[in-house]
Amino acid sequence: MKRSALALAASFAVLTGAGLAHAEEIASVNTNFRFTGSDRVTVDAYDDPLVQGVTCYVSRARTGGVKGTLGIAEDPTEASIACRQVGPIRFTQPLKQKTDVFSAGMSFIFKTLHVVRVVDTKRNTLVYLTYSDRIATGSPKNSVTAVPVPEGTTIPVK
């Protein structure tokens, strides 16, 4: 019961965009032609909202067709992530040890893509993990990337 309530709250947060970074589509390529809208792979960029100077790029499959156009198709669970330092790294506030920094729906309500930031204090590195879940079940498919913080800059942790 507690798990389903948490999943419902997470789904609500995804739908409302509460407290998460906003993705910007950089490009897409068609993978399967359909007259009603092709399947494609998109590359989205988002800037970490609490770490200035870090941008993550997430590629993922998008289902086309009538259902995809209407936003009711279920996208595949495959995704890949690469995060890079794109400017001087500055922290706007202390970071939690582990937190969702980006989520996007992969189906009408029940499936979500997550990007989680994990702080590796021992190595002074930010680790970003992407995976998908459903309200009832998740997927073990995941991708990980890391951004080392320059020497002399310490990651502030709550």
UniProtKB/TrEMBL annotation:
Keywords in alphabetical order: Signal
Transmembrane regions: none
Q: Does the keyword NAD apply?
A: no
This protein's GO cellular component annotations are: cytosol
Q: Where is the signal peptide?
A: 1-23
Keyword Flavoprotein carried by entry: no
**Record-given protein name:** CreA protein
